[in-house]
Design a protein that fits this description.
42% helix, alpha/beta, 13 strands, two-stranded antiparallel sheet
Length: 348
């Protein structure tokens, strides 16, 4: 792999800025081998869940209440192997692959379950990603209380391990720059923007809402770019990983111009297989070879600085494009008998 693509993420030296994001595929040794051969700079394991960790601890003392008090369900182990296999997988991957292995934990409460991070570190993980969704337990709970809840968890998590910790956030924060500041003060080394969210729908027949997981939509990069730029406005020294909507080398380059240090590719691996990693890595290399930047590090150093301007100018960045007289861009045009097909061919 070209040395020009070397980069740093969470203090780790990577040979490539393209990482495989958290997903069950990274639990399989042969799949990981193919992803690394294709050029992945690091591998992120699927999240081990708070419920699984609580269940494994409750089994030792009060097994009759373990499921009820933990929220554990057996299919969770099919997702990530369970608490014991998870640690074994870290050891196996570290023994067989040269790239960093990043573990992941997912939870919503502070508590003893965070101690599992020590076992993750002891098993050889190079870094830890904490995946947190802003679950709302009470309509009277304020935004400040919700943000403080995640900061408390991150503070305890970072204090329990010596490996670097990144926090994977959702887009549901009013002020991402402020949240980034709080997380760095709590001890986080980086943020992953953003966590994947389930798709909500309403069943007309059942008269109730439904929730399902989907791959990232094809045209979802814009929200990721916005989040990265807004987070950089914090002027903090947090490293940023772009996650969600990266499908090509051009997408990866866009996120890095916006401020990402690395990109995580997940949904596209499910769609195209390991070869998509190779294509993105080769595309970034070609971009550097044909441009003025000798290396990825030089390119990242030259990207534009994000500065918050006067209120009226910041407001103008929204009002101006919204009120221009040009027709609104339609990313998914509908073919009609008047306009022809999506390629402009007239109907006969």
């Amino acid at each position: 792999m070209p040395s020009e693509l070397a980069c740093c993420y969470l203090g780790m030296e990577l040979e490539s800025p393209v990482l495989v994001g958290s997903c069950p595929l990274t639990m399989e040794l042969e799949t990981v081998r193919q992803l690394v051969d294709a050029g992945a700079g690091a591998i992120v394991l699927p999240s081990i869940l708070q419920e699984q960790i609580l269940y494994s601890r409750l089994l030792k003392n009060s097994p009759e209440h373990a499921i009820e008090r933990s929220g554990y369900q057996p299919q969770q182990d099919r997702f990530n192997g369970g608490t014991e296999k998870y640690l074994q997988t870290i050891e196996t991957l570290r023994a067989n692959e040269s790239v960093p292995i990043i573990a992941s934990m997912d939870g919503i409460d502070d508590g003893d379950w965070i101690g599992y991070a020590k076992e993750i570190e002891a098993s050889g993980a190079n870094a830890l990603e904490f995946n947190w969704h802003p679950a709302i337990f009470s309509p009277s709970e304020s935004a400040e209380e919700i943000e403080e809840r995640v900061c408390v968890i991150v503070r305890h998590l970072c204090a329990s391990v010596s490996i670097p910790v990144a926090v994977k956030l959702s887009q549901r924060f009013t002020n991402l720059a402020s949240m980034a500041r709080k997380l760095q003060i709590a001890g986080a080394d980086g943020v992953v923007l953003f966590s994947h969210l389930p798709q909500w729908d309403v069943s007309v027949d059942r008269g109730h809402w439904t929730i399902r997981w989907e791959l990232s939509p094809i045209n979802s990069l814009g929200l990721i770019l916005e989040g990265i730029v807004r987070t950089r406005a914090s002027e903090m020294d947090l490293q940023i990983a772009a996650s969600g909507g990266v499908r090509s080398a051009e997408d990866a380059i866009k996120t890095m111009i916006a401020g990402a240090d690395v990109v995580m590719v997940t949904s596209e691996v499910y769609r195209e297989g390991p070869e998509v990693i190779r294509n993105i890595v080769q595309g970034i290399s070609k971009f550097l070879d044909t441009g003025p930047y000798p290396s990825l590090a030089d390119f990242l150093h030259a990207r534009p600085v994000v500065k918050l301007g006067p209120k009226h100018l910041m407001r103008l960045s929204f009002v101006d494009p919204h009120t221009r007289s040009e027709p609104y861009f339609d990313p998914t045009p509908v073919v009609t008998s008047d306009t022809g097909d999506a390629f402009g061919h007239k109907h006969t």
